[in-house]
């Protein structure tokens, strides 16, 4: 008669031999996989934030809205896109930028004193963050440049005699050139 034994998983078996080791090893592997993979899977699925819809609402009496035209070259060697530009700013430091080529939106951007968001609807891309915006998105620095504040090293801003302006990223070749109503 065989004596009952307890496996590593707590199962009791009256039979011995290789079959018991195989079953115990199988259950140990499943338990190990679940304890390692399940938390990682939950972190992967729940740890990501969906794209931010908006940083603020653009309503109220303290908003100043300007409209105009702009030419945008995303980077050196690419063609320019021409379109309508809307820039809205409030007294708290919030800014909304929309660049459209009727009938499609090319980009929309929002900045606050410590957050930024930029969307490219045609590609369904959205980027957001806290602190200083990345230099690869020159649009996010347009309100700073128009206010005459200093820009990061690779960004250059100039005003033109005809009332227009030009913002250029010397590192990527991105340019934004245009004019806005007063």
How many discrete structural domains?
A: 2
The helix tally amounts to 2
CATH superfamily of the largest domain: Lipoprotein localisation LolA/LolB/LppX
Characterize the biggest β-sheet.
9 strands, antiparallel
CATH topology of the largest domain: outer membrane lipoprotein receptor (LolB), chain A
Order of adjacent strands in the largest pleated sheet: 8-7-6-5-4-3-11-10-9
The value of Rg in angstroms is 29 Å
For the record, the CATH architecture of the largest domain stands as Clam
Q: In percent, how helical is the residue content?
A: 10-25%
| Average pLDDT taken over every residue | 81
The N- and C-terminal alpha carbons lie at a distance of 98 Å
What does this structure look like?
This protein has helices at 18-46, 142-146; strands at 5-6, 12-13, 63-73, 81-90, 95-101, 104-111, 115-120, 125-130, 155-159, 165-169, 175-180. It folds into two domains: 5-46; 63-180, outer membrane lipoprotein receptor (LolB), chain A. It is elongated and about 80 Å long. The N and C termini lie far apart (98 Å). The longest helix has 29 residues, at 18-46. By secondary structure, the protein is of the alpha+beta class.
Which terms would index this structure?
nine-stranded antiparallel sheet, 11 strands, 2 domains, 182 residues, alpha+beta, single chain, two-stranded antiparallel ribbon, outer membrane lipoprotein receptor (LolB), chain A, 2 helices
SSE map:
Blueprint: E1 5-6, E2 12-13, H1 18-46, E3 63-73, E4 81-90, E5 95-101, E6 104-111, E7 115-120, E8 125-130, H2 142-146, E9 155-159, E10 165-169, E11 175-180
């Amino acid at each position: 008669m065989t004596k009952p034994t307890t496996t590593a998983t707590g199962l009791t078996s009256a039979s011995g031999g290789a079959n018991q080791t195989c079953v115990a090893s199988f259950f140990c592997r499943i338990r190990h996989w679940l304890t390692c993979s399940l938390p990682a899977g939950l972190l992967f699925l729940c740890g990501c934030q969906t794209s931010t819809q908006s940083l603020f609402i653009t309503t109220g009496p303290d908003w100043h809205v300007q409209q105009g035209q702009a030419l945008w070259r995303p980077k050196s060697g690419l063609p320019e896109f021409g379109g309508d530009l809307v820039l809205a700013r409030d007294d708290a430091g919030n800014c909304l930028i929309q660049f459209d080529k009727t009938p499609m939106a090319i980009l929309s951007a929002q900045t606050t004193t410590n957050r930024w968001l930029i969307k490219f609807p045609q590609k369904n891309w959205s980027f957001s963050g806290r602190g200083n915006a990345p230099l690869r998105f020159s649009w996010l620095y347009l309100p700073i440049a128009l206010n005459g504040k200093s820009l990061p090293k690779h960004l250059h801003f100039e005003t033109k005699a005809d009332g227009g302006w030009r913002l250029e990223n010397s590192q990527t070749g991105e340019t934004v050139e245009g004019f806005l109503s007063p």
